[in-house]
TrEMBL record:
Family: Belongs to the ATP-dependent AMP-binding enzyme family.
Gene (UniProt): acs
The keyword Magnesium is assigned to this record: yes
Root EC class: ligase
Protein name: Acetyl-coenzyme A synthetase
Species this chain originates from: Mycobacterium yunnanensis
InterPro entries: Ac_CoA_lig, ACAS_N, AMP-bd_C, AMP-bd_C_sf, AMP-binding_CS, AMP-dep_synth/lig_dom, ANL_N_sf
Gene3D superfamilies, sorted: 3.30.300.30, N-terminal domain of ligase-like
Domain of life: Bacteria
Post-translational modification comment from the UniProt entry: Acetylated. Deacetylation by the SIR2-homolog deacetylase activates the enzyme.
Swiss-Prot/TrEMBL keywords: Acetylation, ATP-binding, Ligase, Magnesium, Metal-binding, Nucleotide-binding
HAMAP family to which the protein is assigned, alphabetical: Ac_CoA_synth
PANTHER family: ACETYL-COENZYME A SYNTHETASE, ACETYL-COENZYME A SYNTHETASE 1
Length: 655
């Protein structure tokens, strides 16, 4: 790290918004009072920021908890809300998307009127392919405008999209297609990876062939790179043949507020990813409301940029549905932050005059490591608000972000939420909250979250220093964009989220947290078997099952160990079968490759230790806590419940 970055710019503990920011902010403190006075009336008001074809009369029906119904007798069309209504309001010429391709000379500007035409054409094309409301479409694409068009076209038709991150492997895609029984995959021929075109279509071919791919009728392919692709006649279709030829006239049909909008697969505590299901009215209400108030967007003047990928929930809510429902202008970037140079993000901010920048702590730490001189070469004065998401942001990175990106002036919104919550739940309001670096602060107006102990008793506010008592972060009241279930598995939905505090009827988020001295929330990270690698959610069980899938592995245990750069890093401990013992050295590389192939390169373990035994309790449970101690080089915690405490000598010897 550069010398000047090691000295923290300040040890200030709380940062209040400037008067100038507060005076122009969309959200004032009155929002908390309004929500407090009448929560359901408050949500009705937020829902009415949208255009409803049939107004709702009931706000919330919680009688079938934990499956909520919000605004159930209302009808609306999500794509109409995100596109058409802005054109009808006279804003068709406003830029919706400044698309910046990975190769530096690729870019495109798309206005709301153009977006409406593109979405209408795609909706007509999907209809011609036989898709009807309720069907599922897998979208496996890099960050190209057609990916957003495809999502909106599905939404327009009431077809559920299941976006699969283009960094996932063929086998991960296959499992998701099979679980959702998708009829169509939309993909590209290839994608740019640090200047080189790499195939994507090959992975789709592999995923849809054979068992599990039977539901697929067509593969719709956007030509992005021009590289050669295999082609199955009748099944495979070019986007430019099918979509470009379709009519720009398409009348959207309104759907019930509880009609499903999309599935998004995320890692749980077992090896099988869960298809998180979101529905129409509540999801769009909260996405739009949070985007407007947390990011303080002024559609006429702001240039907003969320650096996430549409393959994750942040891309769904804060690239597609939130910003577009609010009619803002945004930057969408196809590539990685360091390609072709580390200046890329700063150049984009400068060129497009980005005013609001929303990214992940891991990227802030990457920039920090590169040193502030890179940022200093660019004019970042257009920035007026910064956001963070995906993992706790360490105070040092928070302060660096504010100083270097934000000229020590811009508010930072540290936003806590999950795939399951659909949109932001805990976050500062930028014109109201005096923020503490590292804390997501308090639940947004209309949202309720509490930290409780094992028995469900609410913890007391803590102190900023000294012993901290931590507990479980729970959401004790339903919220509009909450998940409505796990695709095809209602039991798992109840078991996963609603069983820990079943008596109280609370949702357990899987995170540990503590209160600070002002009652603000400090999220400490997952306390289940879910790891957070650079903000990507990966389960220990998924990686373990990829490892034991290899013929040379007898047993595997995986833990997330603290990593300065990526938040957590994957550490695996494996016992090899006798037949594979000879080649332990080669096996490690082979196993890392196996995990990349089975899941994704992002799930490759940082370390794999070949060990003779794993630490187990008498009931046969692997003690991950102790493995984490080993991986992080700490003194071992309590080993009294182990069958054989001496196992650690052997593990350490192998490390
Ligand atoms: O552990 C929390 C962490 O990310 C988890 C949710 O992951 P995912 O569903 O992939 O969604 C990520 C983007 C919303 C949470 O359970 N997390 C997310 N944001 C924060 C966070 N932890 C601390 N602070 C945050 N701001």
């Amino acid at each position: 790290m550069a010398q000047n970055d090691t000295a923290a710019p300040s040890t200030q503990t709380s940062y209040a918004p400037s008067t100038a920011f507060a005076e122009q902010a969309n959200a004032t403190a009155a929002l908390y009072d309004e929500a407090e006075a009448d929560r359901l009336a408050f949500w009705a008001e937020q829902a009415n920021r949208l255009a409803w074809e049939t107004p709702f009369t009931e706000v919330l029906d919680w009688s079938e908890a934990p499956v909520a119904k919000w605004f159930a007798d209302g009808k609306l069309n999500v794509a109409y809300n995100c596109v058409d209504r802005h054109v009808e309001a006279g804003n068709g010429d406003r830029v919706a998307i400044h698309w910046v391709g990975e190769p530096v000379d690729h870019h495109r500007t798309i206005t709301y009127a153009e977006l409406k035409d593109e979405v209408s054409k795609a909706a007509n094309a999907l209809t011609d392919l036989g898709l009807v409301a309720g069907d599922r479409v897998a979208i496996y694409m890099p960050m190209v405008p057609e990916a957003i068009v495809a999502m909106l076209a599905c939404a327009r038709l009431g077809v559920l999209h299941s976006v699969v991150f283009a960094g996932f492997s063929a086998s991960a895609l296959k499992a998701r297609i099979a679980d959702a029984e998708a009829k169509l995959v939309i993909t590209t021929d290839g994608q740019y990876r640090r200047g080189k075109a790499a195939s994507l279509k090959d992975a789709v071919d592999e995923a849809v062939e054979g068992d599990g791919g039977q539901s697929i009728q067509h593969v719709l392919v956007v030509k992005r790179t021009g590289i050669d692709v295999g082609w199955t006649k009748g099944r495979d279709l070019w986007w430019h043949d099918v979509v470009d030829a379709a009519s720009t006239e398409h009348t959207p049909k309104a759907f019930d507020a509880e009609h499903p909008l999309f599935l998004l697969y995320t890692s749980g505590t077992t090896g099988k990813p869960k298809g998180i299901m979101h529905t129409t009215g509540g999801y769009l209400t909260q996405s739009s409301y949070t985007h407007f108030n947390v990011f303080d967007v002024k559609p006429e003047t702001d240039v907003y940029w969320c650096t996430a990928d549409i393959g994750w929930v942040t891309g769904h809510t804060y690239i597609v549905y939130g910003p577009l429902s609010n009619g803002v202008t945004q930057v969408v970037y196809e590539g990685t932050p360091t390609s072709p140079t580390e200046h890329r993000h700063f150049e984009i901010i400068e060129k497009y005059g980005v005013t609001i920048y929303y990214t992940a702590p891991t990227l802030v730490r990457t920039f920090m490591k590169l040193g502030r001189q890179i940022a200093a070469e660019h004019d970042l004065s257009s920035l007026r608000l910064l956001g963070s998401v995906g993992e706790p942001i360490n105070p040092e990175a928070w302060r660096w972000y504010r100083t270097v990106f934000g000229a020590d002036q811009t508010p930072i919104v540290d936003t806590w939420w999950q795939t399951e919550t659909g949109s932001i739940m805990i976050s500062p309001l930028p014109g109201v909250t005096a923020t503490k670096p590292g804390s997501a602060m308090t639940p947004l107006p209309g949202i309720s979250a509490v930290i409780v102990d094992d028995d469900g008793n609410r913890l007391e506010p803590g102190t900023d220093h000294g012993e901290q008592v931590s507990g479980y972060l729970v959401l004790d009241k339903p919220w509009p964009s909450m998940l409505r279930g796990i695709w095809g598995d209602p039991e798992r939905f109840k078991e996963t989220y609603w069983s820990r505090f079943a008596e109280q009827g609370w949702y357990f988020a899987g995170d540990g947290a503590r209160y600070g001295s002002d009652g603000e929330i400090w999220v400490l990270g997952r306390i289940d078997d879910v790891m957070n690698i650079s903000g990507h959610r990966i389960s220990t069980a998924e990686v373990e099952s990829a490892l034991v899938g290899h013929s040379g592995v007898a047993e595997a245990a995986v833990v997330g160990a603290t990593d300065e750069q990526t938040g957590q890093a994957i550490c695996a401990f494996v016992i090899l079968k006798a037949s594979a013992q000879g080649g332990a050295e080669n096996m490690v590389e082979e196993l890392r490759a196996e995990v990349a192939k089975e899941i994704s390169p992002i799930a490759k373990p940082r370390e794999i230790h070949v060990v003779p035994e794993l630490p187990k309790t008498r009931s046969g449970k692997i003690m991950r806590r102790l493995l984490r101690d080993v991986a992080e080089g700490r003194e071992l915690g309590d080993t009294s419940t182990l069958v054989d405490p001496s196992v650690f000598e052997a593990i350490r010897a192998g490390k």
